[in-house]
């Protein structure tokens, strides 16, 4: 038997990202598209909560005790960073609470931590953006909390639209999302932020950036960008402006 293959050291050394996702996340396949081949995603979920997508759900899925438990669930595979992959859960209580969530993850043993809303703040500062348009799948009240969060970090929401969905967010079609992004844009907006890690956006970013001539920033994109940045790895996937600051 020819055993020449044994001379190889094996596959590229694996590097890991721990991902804490809300219980209803349905976009794992999209999430994997944002990372290079040598990076593995190790997912843990927050406990099921029998409520619709709302202010109440955002509060429930952002309980720091749940995040600490989920962090410990993925530590045995030695992730280099742990991400709380939830936009509403990381903005609903403001910037100070967002920072407390990353602290809770690190105190549970993670070597580094990011949240989706924290990643959004990093990108807005990196790109020196101060006026944005927003599209969310939430109701008006929860969308308003995003506006408040952005205002806390010195960013004005010049226009906004929301889909008013209480569930099934991952089922929204690309066509609907693209039409609503175009409608939400404003001539004074320097970028568009599309909220929610359960809203599919991967294949829309590049054509919409070309059509609008400005960054189209989405939740999963930003979260993985922040993780890869901490790992000193280049961004994977669409996003002309993000590649310039990665």
TrEMBL record:
Record key words, sorted: Isomerase
Molecular function terms, GO-annotated: isomerase activity
Keyword tRNA-binding: no
Isomerase listed as a keyword: yes
Signal peptide interval: none
Protein's organism: Amycolatopsis echigonensis
Protein known as: Asp/Glu/hydantoin racemase
Superkingdom per UniProt: Bacteria
């Amino acid at each position: 038997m020819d055993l020449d293959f044994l001379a190889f050291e094996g596959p590229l050394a694996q590097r890991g990202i721990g991902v804490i996702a809300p219980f209803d996340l349905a976009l794992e396949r999209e999430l994997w598209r944002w990372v290079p081949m040598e990076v593995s995603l190790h997912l843990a979920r927050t406990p099921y909560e029998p409520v619709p997508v709302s202010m109440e759900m955002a509060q429930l899925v952002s309980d720091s005790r749940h995040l600490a438990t989920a962090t410990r669930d993925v530590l045995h595979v030695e992730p280099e960073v742990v991400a709380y992959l939830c936009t509403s859960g990381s903005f609903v209580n403001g910037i100070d609470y967002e920072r407390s969530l990353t602290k809770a993850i690190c105190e549970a043993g993670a070597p580094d931590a990011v949240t989706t809303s924290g990643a959004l703040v990093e990108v807005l500062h990196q790109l020196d953006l101060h006026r944005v348009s927003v599209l969310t799948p939430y109701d008006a009240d929860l969308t308003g909390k995003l506006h408040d969060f952005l205002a806390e970090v010195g960013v004005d929401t010049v226009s906004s639209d929301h889909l008013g969905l209480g569930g099934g967010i991952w089922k929204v079609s690309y066509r609907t999302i693209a039409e609503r992004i175009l409608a939400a844009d404003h001539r004074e907006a320097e970028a568009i932020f599309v909220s929610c890690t359960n809203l599919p956006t991967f294949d829309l970013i590049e054509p919409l950036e070309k059509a609008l001539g400005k960054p189209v920033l989405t939740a999963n994109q930003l979260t993985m960008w922040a993780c890869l940045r901490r790992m000193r790895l280049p961004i994977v996937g669409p996003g002309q402006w993000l590649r310039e600051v990665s």
